[in-house]
Amino acid sequence: MEQRPRIAVTVAAPAAQSEPSLAVRKNALYVAAVERHGALAVVLDAGSDDATRRAAFDAMDGLLMSGGADIDPGRYGQSIDGAVAVEPDRDRLEAEAWAAARARGLPVLGLCRGMQAINVFSGGTLLQHVDGHAGAAYGHGAAATHRVHLVPGSRLSAWMGSAAEVEVNSYHHQGIRAGDLGPDLVATAWAPSPAGDLVEGLEAADGSFVVGVQCHPERTESTPETFERLFAAFVDACRAHRSG
User: Fold this and answer.
1) Is 241 a catalytic residue?
2) Please, what are the domains in the chain?
């Protein structure tokens, strides 16, 4: 019988959050998003010890970096100028996970903070604050939404059925402008903002499966059903690596 692909999922440590029970619920959504497509999620947070991390990195067939706190601006050579609630321990975990995944050529998917992490670890920077993009926090009211414009020919456009636009939820207060994008990445979706157009999706320029979206597609109540194709494609890529 074919074994399920193992996906390392980096998440916020619930005990370090202001609402631990809500953090547990949010983390469970990432796990469900890959497991309903046949993967086995291996959850890591900043409290995972070195042995646990090494074992997960050695066994993983792919990496999912989830949403959460802002990345320490020191990671991209800036001082704090809008970033809040940084978690350096999580930054270190995800930098290790990213390095391990890239060294082995594994598929990587980044959601919200995870997309920003892909950009930072690829040599890009972030706009530390964008007015009007955060909306109500998850679990505290209806999601803010906005439309994003998809880049024709991109993977994201294909997964969305080659649609020109799609409505997505908006839980972020930071962003990536064209000039912030890492040198080996290309934008796959854009959205207007008071700070100018922001990257809402990205992928690796070399065609490898490194994909990020700024929204939270695991929160299915405020995400188009077509985003299930993103999770399915990611798990399929991890499965192909495992069997290849």
Assistant:
1) no
2) 6-243 (3.40.50.880)
